[in-house]
Design goal:
Elements: H1 17-26, E1 34-37, H2 40-48, E2 52-56, H3 63-67, E3 74-75, H4 78-88
Parallel strand pairs: 1-2, 2-3
Length: 89
């Protein structure tokens, strides 16, 4: 990774500070960034930052909870994630 943020450095999720700092560090616009998360906290952080998000259902929270956050898509494997990114990013 070229950069990262964690709760020791920023406000905890779902506060958008982590994403906002990374966006600023890399000088990219929010419309060119995609948050990929396995928890509702990740997806809510993206929403709070006014960013798009993908849900991956092979992590911490169950699929129905992830769906409640209205991600662009919910993916079930690293392979599916790779295919989605190839087709859409």
């Amino acid at each position: 990774f070229a950069a990262w943020r964690c709760a020791d450095e920023c406000f905890s999720k779902p506060h958008p500070q982590m994403l906002e700092e990374l966006i600023e560090e890399f000088a990219v616009s929010k419309d060119r960034v995609l948050m990929i998360g396995d928890t509702t906290h990740d997806l809510q952080m993206a929403s709070n930052a006014s960013m798009s998000a993908l849900a991956v259902a092979y992590g911490a929270h169950p699929a129905d909870l992830l769906d409640s956050m209205s991600p662009l898509a919910r993916l079930h494997s690293v392979k599916e994630l790779g295919e989605w990114l190839y087709q859409n990013a």
